[in-house]
C-alpha cells in the first residue's frame, strides 16, 4: 500500500466532515465565551466569524458584525482594544476597550474561552457516563471488538463481540509474569501467539461457551503472523445516575491534567530534538481526522466521547503559557502586574509574534509527524 492509499484508507469523508463539525462547534463556543465576557464588561466586539478566510455573508447585530466565512476550520472574534490602532501609516497602542480593562477583567476575557471548552468536555463526559454507565476493565477477559476480513481469526469463526475467557484450557489470570514484569491477563493472547503450536481458545458468545482449537505458526519467513483481531480487556459496566456521572466526569477532568501536561511535555521535547516518532499523547490534523473516522464508523456515543476529548485538548492547549495563546496572554498580564506596569505595546507585540511563530512551527511539526506514519 503506497502513501496515498494508506492515507485514503485511514481518512474517510464522514470522518473529515465530523472533524470539521466538532472543531468548528468547539471553536465557536470558545470564541462565544470570549465575546460574552467582553460584552459583559462593556467592551465592544467588532466582529464574530464562524469559519476562517473570505467572508461569505455578514450581518450586523448588537454592534457586532457576525460573519460566515469560507473555510470551516474554527472561527474568531475581534474584540475592540486587542489589536493596534492603524491610522494611515502610523500604528499606535490601543487605549480603549480591552486595553482599558483592569488586569482581572482582561484575565476574565482570556480565561473564558478555555474554560468554556473544559465545561463542554465536562458536560459531554457526564452525559456519556449517565447514558452508558462507567466501564471498568476486566483483566481476566479478552473482548474482541473487530475481526479483519480474510484473516485467520475469521477463518476460525471468531466474531466481533466474542469474549475469550481461557487459553489452552487455563482461565486468564488477573496478571502474569513476563520479561520481569507483571502484565494484565488479557495480554496473554499476544504472548501465546508469539509461540508456535496447538492452541485452544474458550469463547463466550450470546450466553454460549465455544471451544476454538487451532494450529499456530508464529513466524513465516521471519515475519510475525497476525491473528487478525482487535481486542482489549473485558468490560464491566456500572450504571450511574446524573449526580454520580457528574462526579465521575469531574474526577476524569482532574486526572486528565497530569496526563495532558505530560503529553505536551513529550511533544515539546520531540519538537526541539526533531524527533518525528509518533506517540499516543498528541496527534495533529491528520491524526485527529483518523481518530474521528474510526469513531464515525461506530457512531453514537463514541463520537460524543471524541468531541469531549477534542474540547478537553483545545481547552488545555489554549491555557499553555505560550504568547499568542490565551494562556500566554494571561501570562503577559500577570507579568505586568508583577512589574507594577504593563508591558509596552511594542514589547507585547514582539513577544506575541514570537509565540505565534512557535505555535505555527509546532502545528507544522505535528502535521509532518502525522504524515510520516503513512510512508
From TrEMBL:
InterPro entries: PDZ_6, PDZ_sf, Pept_M50_Zn, Peptidase_M50. One of its GO terms (molecular function) is metalloendopeptidase activity. It is a multi-pass membrane protein. Residues 144-179 form the PDZ domain. It comes from the Bacteria. GO terms for biological process: proteolysis. The chain crosses the membrane at residues 6-29, 107-129, 298-320, 350-368. CDD domains: S2P-M50_PDZ_RseP-like. One of its GO terms (cellular component) is membrane. Its main location: membrane. It is found in: Membrane. Belongs to the peptidase M50B family. This is Zinc metalloprotease.
